[in-house]
Amino acid sequence: MAMLNRVHLNGLRAVETVARLGSLATAAAELNVSVSAVSQQIKRTEMQLGQTLFERTPGGLVLTEFGVVFTARLSAGFRELAQAVALADETSQCMLVVSVAPAFASKWLLPRLSRHFARHPNVLLRIDASVRLADLDHSDIDIAIRLGDGKWPGGRAELLLAQEVFPVCAPSIAARLKSVQDLAQTCAITDERSMISWDRWFEAAGVEPVTFLKGARFTDPMLCLESAIAGHGVMLAWQLLTADALADGRLVAPFGVRAESGLGYWMVTSATKDESRKVRDFKAWIREEIAATMAQFSALDSAA
Q: Which residue range or ranges hold the HTH lysR-type domain (predicted)?
């Protein structure tokens, strides 16, 4: 391998291209350089090798006996290099990078990913768990799922699901809640970073706001959820955060009233890049999963 240090790759590429195409002019066109540049690279390579590769004849360059053997191996080497680069490109094309908030990833997306793997086995999925919307034009992120109002400069946003908020609690606490006024005897579990408030829900329920007992406060919605499941009080939650816990009975939505928060889950992609097939497939898959989740909510509403 050390012998390669004395020979420039560009020169070897020029030699291989001329040998394969048969002339300086066609090689220069493929390499996007001038004819004189190709000629100089060949001369420099011959000097570095200490061997003549081409005979200069009135009809053009003709490979020497050594040149025939040398360029045959050189062409095989460049084919291997091309295949290696193609492999890297293929891996990149098959990698789908999805940026999502940790709570969305943990409580809703991850339990459903096996169905995406089964449907698209050739797509390698990488989850970038972050609450920050990355620069989609200058990163490897293909699509982001974000909770907000859909206004992200430089992004193309499509609404996935309008967020609705509602109280949830453990079944043991729900059993004590006969009316909304009973919330006054219940601790509120608070997410200090939440963009939603109880006022919207009380308005949708058509009742005056209730003052809760002071309860646990967290800076992460996943911790709020676990606190509610543990029976520490009532939290103001939303569909995708609580879907599975409501479905399996760990949580109950005691009043059957959901209020629009004015926010939503949005699929955000670069406004300047064409969407790839893998992104379009992911969008179609996640819409199906959202529809299935909301069907669960409809069934719970009917049961209530």
A: 7-64
Question: Looking at the chain, how many residues does it have?
Answer: 304
- For residues 16 and 74, is the Cβ–Cβ distance under 8 A? yes
pLDDT per position as a tens digit, 124-143 = 899 999 888 777 887 888 99
pLDDT digits (tens, 9 = 90+) for 72-110: 999 888 888 877 776 665 555 688 999 999 999 999 999
> Distance of alpha carbon 260 from its chain centroid, rounded?
27
pLDDT reported for residue 281:
95
Q: pLDDT value at position 226?
A: 96
Contact status, residue 204 vs residue 175, Cβ threshold 8 Å = no
Residues 31 and 61: beta-carbon distance below 8 Å:
no
213 token code pair: 């007992």
3-state secondary structure of 68: helix
Other CB atoms within a 10 A radius of the CB of residue 50 amount to 7
C-alpha angle with apex 109: 107 to 114, nearest 5 degrees? Answer: 120
Measure the CA–CA gap between 94 and 88, rounded to whole angstroms: 10
CA 222 – CA 84 distance, rounded (Å): 43
Task: Please state, in angstroms and rounded to a whole number, the distance separating the CA atoms of residues 229 and 252.
Answer: 9
For residue 279, the Cα-to-chain-centroid distance in whole angstroms is 9
